[in-house]
Design a protein that fits this description.
Layout lengths: L20 H31 L8 H33 L8 H25 L1
Helix pairs in contact: 1-2, 2-3
Length: 126
């Protein structure tokens, strides 16, 4: 019921409606991109352990692989949560949720890059 005569009431805030299919498909493509990123990180973690020789500092190969694998898990889980949150917002006509996942992914990659820089510097000094 409207408080203003002659003005139609919009749907209830928690009432779902079927969105334009293009938005749902775009959300799905974004989700799949997060999964591809996660799979790439996982493959990199496995490759570090299986294909690279031991680094100059013992045990660091395992640390790098573990960090890549952990980042893969966070990226996959975050992609699922983001997909679900965006789908929820689209179906209820709400604003899209804020994204923290790109910051987490970028931060993790910066940590890995700095770690690699230290490894290169140690190797160059040896």
């Amino acid at each position: 019921m409207s408080l203003h005569p002659g003005v139609a009431v919009a749907e209830a805030p928690d009432e779902e409606h079927e969105p334009d299919y293009r938005f749902t498909l775009a959300n799905e493509r974004t989700f799949l991109a997060w999964l591809r990123t996660s799979l790439s990180l996982l493959a990199a973690g496995v490759a570090v352990v299986q294909l690279l020789p031991e680094f100059a500092v013992p045990g660091t190969r395992g640390v790098v692989a573990a960090l890549l694998t952990a980042l893969a898990v966070v990226t996959a889980a975050g992609g699922v949560l983001r997909w679900r949150g965006v789908e929820f917002a689209i179906r209820r006509g709400r604003p899209l949720p804020r994204q923290r996942l790109p910051w987490v992914l970028a931060g993790g990659l910066v940590v890995l890059a700095l770690f690699a820089l230290v490894l290169v510097a140690v190797r160059a000094g040896a």
